[in-house]
Design goal:
The protein is of the alpha+beta class and about 70 residues long. The protein has 3 helices and 3 strands, in the order ββαααβ. The structure holds zinc ion. The site of zinc ion has 5 residues, from loops.
Length: about 70
Amino acid sequence: MRHGYRCEDCNLAVFPTTTRVELAWLKDRTHVAREVARHSSGGLDSWMMEGLAFLDNHAGHSVALVRANPPK
Ligand SMILES: [Zn+2]
């Protein structure tokens, strides 16, 4: 089961390749992730970059942690 972030204001969602636990962690600690990015020459994992970019784009919006709909 894939999980992701969904912006209720824009009706947009992303589903980075990671677990729900990781996504919840990132959503609560974007400032920590940005610090890690700043001090890491190798950069962040791609799911984290994708998640952070989405959270940045939708700062101040109503972003929820959601489950991807199973394919029909
Ligand atoms: Zn938005």
